[in-house]
Specification:
The longest helix has 5 residues. The protein has one helix and 13 strands. Helices cover 2% and strands 54% of the residues. It has 205 residues and is mostly beta strands. About 2% of the residues have low confidence.
C-alpha cells in the first residue's frame, strides 16, 4: 500500500470544503436566567426556531438554581395558537438517589411526578437553595410540528436536594395533534435565580 504524502502545495490547492460534515446539532438559542419566573422558548420570538425546521429539539439546562427551598423543576408546552401552557400530558418517571452520609440509596418510581391526562406543568426534578445546590440535565422533544401524531418527550436530570444526589428520568407525550411551538421551564414556586438554558435543533440522521 503506497503512502500518500501531502505538502504545502497540496493543501493550498484545496479551494472548497463543502463536502465536510457540518454536524447534526445546531445551537438555536441560549438564555441566561437571572431571577426569572419562567424561561420560555417561543417559536418566531427572539430568534427561537421551534417548528418543522428540525424533527428533534434538545433543551439543556445547566446549573439551574432555585430561589425557594426544595422545589420541583417543571416544564410545559403550548400548542400553536393556544392561550397558555396547559397542554394535556401523560407521563411516567423514576429516579435513583444516594445521600451524602450513605444512610440511604434507592431506585424508585416517582408517583408524585407522573400525569394521566393532566394539564399541569410536568415535573422534571427537585432542587433546593443551598449556595452550592443546582440541577442540570436535558429534555428531548420529538417532531413538535406534527399535526398527525402526539408529541413525545423524554428527560434526564441530575439534581441536589437534602444532601442527596438524585438522577431523575421522565418520559411522556403531549396528547395533541396540534403543533407545539412554545416550551416553558420554571420552578413550582419562586424564581429561577440562575442557570443557562440552551435550545438545539437536531437534523435527521
Amino acid at each position: 500500500m503506497a503512502l500518500v504524502k501531502y505538502n504545502n502545495n497540496s493543501i493550498s490547492a484545496i479551494t472548497a470544503a463543502s463536502s465536510l460534515p457540518t454536524g447534526a446539532m445546531t445551537l438555536i438559542k441560549e438564555i441566561t436566567a437571572s431571577s426569572d419566573g419562567t424561561i420560555d422558548f417561543v417559536d418566531g420570538t427572539s430568534d427561537v426556531v421551534l417548528d418543522s425546521t428540525y424533527p428533534i429539539y434538545l433543551f439543556k439546562f445547566i446549573n439551574a438554581h432555585a430561589s425557594n427551598d426544595d422545589v420541583v423543576f417543571q416544564f410545559q408546552g403550548n400548542a400553536s395558537g393556544g392561550s397558555g401552557f396547559n397542554e394535556t400530558i401523560t407521563s411516567a418517571g423514576f429516579d435513583t438517589y444516594h445521600k451524602e452520609d450513605d444512610s440511604s440509596a434507592t431506585l424508585r418510581y416517582l408517583t408524585g411526578g407522573d400525569q394521566a391526562q393532566g394539564t399541569s406543568y410536568q415535573t422534571l426534578a427537585t432542587s433546593e437553595t443551598e449556595n452550592d445546590a443546582s440541577l442540570s440535565g436535558y429534555l428531548y422533544l420529538f417532531n413538535p410540528s406534527s399535526t398527525t401524531f402526539v408529541k413525545h418527550f423524554m428527560s434526564r436530570t441530575q439534581d441536589t436536594h437534602g444532601s442527596t444526589s438524585a438522577d431523575s428520568y421522565y418520559g411522556g407525550y403531549f396528547n395533541t395533534t396540534s403543533a407545539i411551538d412554545e416550551i416553558s421551564f420554571k420552578f413550582a414556586s419562586g424564581n429561577i435565580d440562575a442557570g443557562t438554558f440552551k435550545l438545539y435543533g437536531i437534523k435527521d440522521s
